[in-house]
Description:
The structure holds two protein chains of two kinds.
Chain A: H1 7-17, E1 28-29, H2 36-46, H3 56-61, H4 92-102, E2 107-117, E3 128-136, E4 140-141, E5 146-157, E6 163-174, H5 188-193, H6 207-214, E7 219-223, E8 229-230, E9 245-249, E10 253-262, E11 274-281, E12 286-290, E13 304-313, E14 316-323, E15 343-350, H7 353-362, H8 373-378, H9 388-403, E16 408-416, E17 425-438, E18 441-452, E19 455-465
Helix pairs in contact in A: 2-7
Chain B: E1 9-16, H1 27-42, E2 51-55, H2 62-69, E3 76-80, H3 89-100, E4 105-113, H4 133-136, H5 149-164, H6 168-183, H7 197-202, E5 205-208, E6 210-211, E7 220-229, H8 230-233, E8 241-249, H9 269-282, E9 291-293, H10 302-308, H11 317-322, H12 339-342, H13 349-360, E10 372-376, E11 383-389
Parallel strand pairs in B: 2-3, 2-4, 9-10
Antiparallel strand pairs in B: 1-7, 1-8, 4-7, 5-6, 8-11, 10-11
Amino acid sequence: MSEVMTDEQKEAFVAKLRKEVGSTGTPTTARDPVNQPMIRHWCDAMEDANPLYTDPDAATQGPHNEIVAPPAMLNAWTMIGLVPRVNDPKDPASGVYAMLDEAGYVGVVATNSEHVYHRYLKLGDLLTGTVKLVDVSEEKQTALGIGHFVTTETEYLNQHGEHVGSMFFRILKFRPGTGRTASTGGDGDAAAERPPRPRPSRNQDTDFFWQGSRVGELRIQKCLNCGHLQHPPGTRCPACGSTDMGYITASGEGTLYSYVVSHHPRVPSFDYPLNIGLVELEEGVRLVTNITDCDPDQLKVGMPLRAWHMQTHEDVSIPVFRPARVPRNPSTLTFDEVSVGDELPLCPIPLTPTLIVSTAIASRDYQDVHHDRDMALKKGSEDIFMNILTSSGLSARYIGDWAGPDAVFKNLKIHLGAPNYPYDCMTMSGSVTAKREADGDDIVEVSFRGQNSRGPHVTGTVDLALPRA
Amino acid sequence: MTLKYAYHSAIAGIGATPFTKDSGRTPMDQAVEACLAACEDAGLPPEKVNGFVTYSAEQNPEIELARNLGVEEMTHFSMVHHGGGAACGVIAVACQALYSGAADYVLCYRAFNERSWHRFGAGVQDRPAGAEASEVSFSWSSPFGLVTPASWVAMFATRYMHEYGATTEDFGRVSVVDRDFAATNPYAHFFQRPITLEDHQNSRWIVEPLRLLDCCQETDGAQALLVTTAERAKDLKQKPAVIASAAQGAAEDQHMMRSYYRDSITGIPEMGLCARQLYQSSGLSADDIQTAIIYDHFTPLVLPQLEEFGFCDRGEAKDFIRDGHLGRDGRLPINTNGGQLGEAYIHGLNGIAEGVRQIRGTSVNQIENVENVLATAGTAVPTSALILSQPQ
């Protein structure tokens, strides 16, 4: 039944899909109670170093008085795992998914996840999730393809019947190959036709620099007599007159000394608007470079940056910079020291295949599109892509690293846009958008966004309870 | 070191073609017209010229120009490096030739079709090309897309704004002043077309923080200046504009448009070097200057020039400008021809011609009681400057 349907057939099909809307499936109990090994895997994969999740001593001092699971793991505990298990045939959501698969809507992406946390999960909590089918949309044309959005709500109880949290969740089931464009926007096609960037010319005085870039090293000329560093390189030390010149390999850490955003004229080798920075390395010299993975309006003199090397020709790479990841805040912000309008530091998340696969597995999401490229292509995707639970987990890590370990998440609501494919970079940004008191808590609302080269991957909000001073 | 040729020479003749966007003529043809006009202005038969000075990027060789002008013998000819930075440098070199006796009458000139034949603002998209130092230097910027003059200047502007609290509106105020003077100069491209600060703020980004209205024009046209000794100038037709002094400057760790590696990049030390030489050799100071031609290829670098010449303190040019001191009734009206944003962009030579008119008292925007006029050359490159004075 994968042929295109008539309007009448469509109407009948939607009616069939919607038959179970409002009904609730059989409660599903997690295979394992909340446990330290799964938490560790999650924290490793997400690079979440909050000690309350893994360090018993720190946890005892914290607001929960014992080890807790990262709140964003909420729906990881009841995931069905790798070994295929027969879904509850009476589960209304599973039924809808099966009908859609059968009708050719085999592609799947999650688009929304809204967690509410009544309390943090502790070791030994055994979760039971009960899924309610909330809505099935009309057939819609989306960038990814023609499909239906399916919305569910899941309530989570522990073994004592305690209501610990809930999740509002929406996925798109779509027909592969029916998207609006071959790519999802971005610049894939333009990139293919783009001529290469101007090729650096080099000579005996400057070769070391480009040889370094080729192997991922940022090399700065150093006088071997007096130690003076200089860039661009010269043939003789301006400080002592020595001609004994060598180089150091810079750490790659620096700050933005000045910048421009180029709009006109447009050189075909580049994307515009184009961020060009003058970066001051921590070693003290400056160089002209590009600031990648950062919107023009996010550029600020003084912002911390980190080097990476962009391949521009078969045999040439050039050093460019992206925002540096700011270290985790080891103390916790108080409610009073946070103001509406405060901006969170930018945080780049390089999207390596390892990150995408390890986080999918750590969140127990064994959907093949998150780890198996062949299957991802077959299902209409360009490559494997990040699963939504990881988008939640990385968002929570970002917010938590800023707020500090004792900040308590009350909820986490995200909406997904452009997929996170490997070899891209997602840069997180955020700001404080509200402060209020609710149910005895001092709540700070943070709005955040994770943007990759194609556009926003994740946008969302979170309510955090922060301690009073 | 002291310049010995202070007050020795004078600009005795000025000549230009119309400034257009599409001349329909060769640059050589325009160069000849401008040079003949300068000679005629001075009342000097062109065959008496025996010196030629121009500056790099000039594509009209002085020997071919001499042939067209009927000049049979030349005893001085030179090319000054660094494009617009040499606009006053050509006068300095002419002074040196005249002071040393190497020439009697020197033509300084610039001619091009910088709009209709090639777009100067397109920058160096094809460079670097080779392994020579002049090409390799572009390897530190072109692979990152920093290929245009506007972008090179914008890098200084962002840092200047950061350190001193200047805004894009302060840059816009320079533009508004230029266009105000251009509006009353029939020779200006933007004659009768003044702009407001709002127009400036609404103009599109070229390279942030520079907008379209921060950038000079691209022009087809030619300008020539006839320089001779002050003594000989007395026998010519016009009141001489005496060259109180003219100087060149390049400073420590100087690069072409991209001196980004100095401890500070908010000043223009090479212009400061010119200022010191001019003031020392001429005995003049900022207080003696009534009006100035401040090189304005891009508005942001007008600000530190005012500081280098001591019209205001470091970082305070924005306040000087906000107080209206660059306009018609200000302390230092600048670019009374409309500047390179309003009149034409002849790499600074058209501005020097306006300086001559201010000394003669013939500017369409004449400032009262002009004794001394400052003119500066292209910034961010090795540069130059001069002061013109009334004959004694």
